[in-house]
């Protein structure tokens, strides 16, 4: 095999969708008021209210980390506790940004299958947290990652079950939707069904991982859950000056269901890979392949062989690899990965 770069490290490594670049060019005319006072950002509010079938507030932000941390900072308190999966991005990969911007907000891991929060475990954690005791961090919010950081997708009933527990105790439900499009494409439901109708109060709406350039967004369904979010965003330096260019990207992203078409392409690539390697001896897919990620156990020799072949991926342990498909993952990429796995597994 000729050694070439075969990219499966992250969906962040992919190209921006051409439609979003065209939207930036189209927005680059005349003058507009800054900091969200432009016509495009105003239109974005109504467009997302239509998309989610409810009156919502939309805040374009530079990154998914900003979306998560600042949404939770607005929903919690400095002495509050945010419950999340041990695999959640806010817990493993954001340098405790939620705690920093929340002024001390504590993250509390809750076990569950494949990166999900188990509602029974959440109920136990909240009821034994010492609510009202000044010695203890106070339950404030729960974080759900959709799709999860193990590549699984919460069903609508699963979202509702966690939300019911949270709301029964007065907690805000925040959804990290970095791969929300991939989850919607998998579920085949409406954005409303997978968010506020199932109990979600605040959503980090992912764009970057699915063809975006430089923006994600916070979508607020329950205004009382994030009353001071504008102040949190401004203090953190996360308010775009020329916000029309962020809004233009997001508008193009959801126009004519582009976001879902891109997500379906990424999901389909992951499904094809899973179908071709799941019966290979020595290969174990450890989590459901329901979106665009695969977590696969193989021998150390096979992983080394993939790297020698130029396959780019992240190790998650001595024998565990994560492969992420993008909207622009090609058939050649899929064939190269599968061929390398099959060849090196047979030789190991």
What does it look like?
This protein is an alpha/beta fold. The protein is built from 13 helices and 13 strands. The protein has helices at residues 18-27, 39-51, 64-75, 89-92, 97-101, 119-127, 156-168, 180-187, 229-235, 243-254, 258-277, 300-308, 331-347; strands at residues 6-7, 57-61, 80-84, 106-109, 138-145, 172-177, 202-205, 216-220, 284-285, 293-297, 311-312, 314-315, 320-324. The mean pLDDT is 96. The chain has two domains: 6-14 and 260-347, Aspartate Aminotransferase, domain 1; 18-257, 3-Layer(aba) Sandwich (Aspartate Aminotransferase, domain 2).
What features would you highlight for this structure?
2 domains, Aspartate Aminotransferase, domain 1, four-stranded antiparallel beta sheet, 40% helix, Aspartate Aminotransferase, domain 2, globular, 348 residues
Number of helices: 13
What share of residues are in beta strands?
15-25%
| Helix-strand makeup class | alpha/beta
| Mean pLDDT score | 96
> Order of SSEs, N→C?
EHHEHEHHEHEHEHEEHHHEEHEEEH
Note the gap between the termini: 17 Å
Q: What coarse outline follows from CA principal-axis ratios?
A: globular
Instruction: Please compute the radius of gyration using only Cα atoms.
Output: 21 Å
| Number of β-strand runs | 13
User: What is the spatial order of strands in the main beta sheet?
Assistant: 2-8-7-6-5-3-4
